[in-house]
Amino acid sequence: MRNMSFLCEVSDIDCRDQLRMDRATFQKRCFILQSVCGLKSSSRVSVAEKVAMFLSILAHHTKNRCVKFAFKRSGQTVSKHFHAVLNSVLRLHAMFLVRPQAIGEDSDDPRWGKFQADDSYNDNEFVDSLDTTPEWTAKRDEMALNMFNEWRNAAIV
Q: What is the pTM for the complete model shown?
């Protein structure tokens, strides 16, 4: 528990540096995981510490061994609690995941105007990736040779 007070009760800046969120947001996340998803404290590890281990792994891409050392827990304990929090977070997907709505053709939103279909281009202008005509093969080989020569000249200098 001393590690939790070091992580979350010192200041918002330290909490943000370690867990990528301030103390109030961290407490809200712990409450949601506890009340909605049923994440429970064990006899020796609180919900806040479980969530802090989980966020530490995700926020800093740390390995299990590093978190084990930082939180003074065994690797099995860290892994078990990481998966418990992960399962709880995955149960929240229905609450937080928003399904995208398709933008209709009659949309007046100017942000989507540049994505409207443009019939002015010709489909025949694009080169098929499987084109093996002699002209294309010669052009491809010439481009590859030019790129190689430029790379070789740059490496010599």
A: 0.59
152's enclosing H/E stretch is: helix 134-156
- The three-point CA angle 101-107-110 to 5° equals 105
pLDDT in tens, 32-76: 999 998 999 999 899 999 999 999 898 888 888 888 888 889 989
Alpha carbon distance, N-terminus to C-terminus of the chain: 59
Examine the pLDDT at 80 and tell me if it is beyond 90: yes
Q: Is 22 exposed, middle or buried (0-12, 13-18, 19+ CB in 10 A)?
A: middle
Interatomic CA distance for residues 31 and 18, integer angstroms: 19
Q: In whole angstroms, what is the distance from residue 9 CA to residue 38 CA? A: 24
Structure tokens at 6: 């070091």
Nearest to 45 by CA among 16, 6, 74: 74
State how far the Cα of 15 lies from the Cα of 22, in Å rounded to an integer.
6
User: Using CA atoms, how far apart are residues 19 and 8, in angstroms rounded to an integer?
Assistant: 9
